[in-house]
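TICKET: design request
STATUS: open
ATTACHED STRUCTURE:
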C-alpha cells in the first residue's frame, strides 16, 4: 500500500450511509491509474493517501477583497468577510481561499487583488467526513470536483455534467449552471458574462467540454457564440486530469482549520516509532544502572558510617549520643589534648610552630618577619624574603602544609621591597 493514492468522487447527495456508492480511482506511486471503479466504501481499495472530490453543486464560489492581515487572522475572519454575499448565516459555512486575481482599476481607483473563496455547508461537510471516517477512509484532502478542468488565462471552460454544469475561470472561480435539454445557453452563464463585461473581465473565448453522455456539437457552439457574443469552441477534456487533481490537493485543499486532517501527526509518529522505542529503552537502561549505582553507593555510605561509629565508640566509650562521628571525634581529640597540656591544632603555639618550621626551611639568609597574628584559629605571618630565590621553595613548603596559603603581602607592610613581601595564612583544623 506504500505510495498508493486513492481518488474518491463524492456523490451529489444530501446524506450518506454505508450503502452509498461512489466512483474511485487508485493511483500507484508514480500517480498512474492502476484501476478504477464504483461501489460502496467497503469495497473501495485502501491507500496511503486519500483525495476526495466535492461535487461542484455543493460549493459556492465568491470573489472578494480581503484586509491585508496575517493568514491566520484572515482565515478566522473569512466567513464574515463574505457575509454580504451570502443569503444564509455565515457561521453555517466553512470558507477557504482557493485562488486570487488582480482586478483592473476602476474609475478613480487603483488596481486591487480579489480572492476566490469556496464556501461549503458545514453540516454537509461534517456528514461527508463522518461517512468516510466510519469506512476507514479519512481524506487527506478535499477539493472541488472542477479541479480536473484545465483553463487557460482569459478563457472560460463550460462543462456539461448530466442536467447540471458549471463555468470555470483560470483563477479557480466556478459558476454553477443549469443546462437544459435545448440548445439555448444557460441563463446563469448570460448573467456571469454580463457581470464580467461590466468589470472589464469578459473572457476571450468559451470552451465547451462534457463529463457525461450529453456532448455539445458545432451547431450548439455556433448558436451560443451568436447569442452570447463571445467566441465559442468545443474542447476535449484535459488528458492529464490526475496531475491537476493532485496539484489542487496541495494548493486548494478545503480541509483547513477545524477540518484539517489529523492523520499527518499519526503518520509522523509511525515513522518515528522505532527511534522513540530505542530512545525509551536507552533511558530505561540508564535509569536502572543509575538506581543500581545509587543503591551501591548508599550501602557503602551506610557501612562507612557504621565503621566510624564503631571506632568512635571504641575510642570514647562514655559518649551518649553519636550524631556526627568524625566531627565529634575531632572535638573530643582536641579536648583530650588540652586536658593533657598538649597544644591543639587551633592553639596559637601550634600554629606559630608550624609557621616557624616553614620559614626555617628557606635557603640563604633568614627572612625578616614584619608581623604575626593569631585570631580565631587563623595565623597570619607577614615577612620580607632575603632574596627572590626563596619564593619557589617557600611555595613548595606551603603547598605541603594543609590549610596554608601564600600570597603577596600588603604593600603597606614593606613598601621598600614589595616583590619580596609575602604573607602566609594558616588555618587550624584543615
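STATUS: resolved
RESOLUTION: sequence designed for all positions
ATTACHED SEQUENCE:
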Amino acid at each position: 500500500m506504500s505510495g498508493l493514492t486513492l481518488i474518491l468522487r463524492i456523490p451529489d447527495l444530501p446524506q450518506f450511509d454505508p450503502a452509498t456508492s461512489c466512483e474511485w480511482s487508485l493511483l500507484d506511486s508514480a500517480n498512474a491509474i492502476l484501476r478504477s471503479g464504483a461501489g460502496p466504501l467497503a469495497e473501495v481499495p485502501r491507500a496511503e493517501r486519500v483525495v476526495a472530490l466535492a461535487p461542484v453543486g455543493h460549493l459556492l464560489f465568491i470573489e472578494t477583497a480581503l484586509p491585508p492581515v496575517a493568514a491566520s487572522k484572515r482565515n478566522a475572519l473569512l466567513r464574515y468577510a463574505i457575509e454580504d454575499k451570502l443569503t444564509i448565516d455565515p457561521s453555517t459555512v466553512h470558507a477557504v481561499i482557493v485562488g486570487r486575481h488582480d482586478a483592473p482599476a476602476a474609475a478613480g481607483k487603483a488596481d486591487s487583488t480579489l480572492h476566490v473563496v469556496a464556501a461549503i455547508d458545514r453540516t454537509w461537510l461534517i456528514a461527508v467526513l463522518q461517512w468516510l471516517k466510519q469506512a476507514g477512509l479519512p481524506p487527506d484532502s478535499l477539493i472541488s470536483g472542477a479541479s480536473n478542468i484545465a483553463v487557460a488565462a482569459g478563457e472560460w471552460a463550460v462543462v456539461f455534467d448530466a442536467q447540471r454544469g458549471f463555468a470555470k475561470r483560470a483563477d479557480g472561480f466556478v459558476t454553477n449552471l443549469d443546462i437544459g435539454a435545448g440548445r439555448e445557453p444557460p441563463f446563469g452563464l448570460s448573467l456571469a458574462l454580463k457581470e464580467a463585461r461590466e468589470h472589464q473581465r469578459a473572457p476571450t473565448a468559451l470552451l465547451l467540454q462534457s463529463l457525461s453522455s450529453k456532448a455539445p456539437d458545432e451547431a450548439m457552439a455556433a448558436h451560443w457564440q451568436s447569442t452570447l457574443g463571445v467566441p465559442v469552441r468545443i474542447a476535449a477534456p484535459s488528458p492529464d486530469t490526475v496531475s491537476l487533481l493532485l496539484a489542487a490537493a496541495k494548493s486548494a485543499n478545503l480541509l483547513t482549520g477545524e477540518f484539517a486532517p489529523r492523520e499527518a501527526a499519526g503518520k509522523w509518529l509511525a515513522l518515528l516509532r522505532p527511534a522513540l522505542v530505542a530512545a525509551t529503552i536507552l533511558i530505561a537502561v540508564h535509569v536502572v544502572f543509575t538506581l543500581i549505582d545509587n543503591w551501591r553507593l548508599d550501602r557503602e555510605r551506610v557501612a562507612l558510617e557504621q565503621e566510624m561509629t564503631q571506632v568512635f565508640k571504641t575510642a570514647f566509650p562514655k559518649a551518649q549520643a553519636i550524631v556526627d562521628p568524625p566531627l565529634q571525634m575531632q572535638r573530643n581529640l582536641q579536648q583530650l589534648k588540652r586536658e593533657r597540656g598538649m597544644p591543639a591544632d587551633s592553639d596559637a603555639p601550634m600554629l606559630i610552630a608550624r609557621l616557624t618550621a616553614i620559614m626555617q626551611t628557606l635557603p640563604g639568609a633568614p627572612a625578616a618577619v614584619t608581623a604575626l597574628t593569631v585570631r580565631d584559629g587563623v595565623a597570619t605571618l607577614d615577612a620580607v624574603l632575603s632574596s627572590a630565590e626563596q619564593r619557589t621553595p617557600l611555595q613548595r613548603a606551603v603547598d605541603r602544609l594543609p590549610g596554608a596559603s601564600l600570597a603577596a603581602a600588603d604593600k603597606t607592610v614593606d613598601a621598600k621591597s614589595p616583590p619580596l613581601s609575602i604573607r602566609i595564612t594558616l588555618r587550624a583544623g584543615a
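CLOSING REMARK: The first strand starts at residue 5 and ends at 9. The mean pLDDT is 82.
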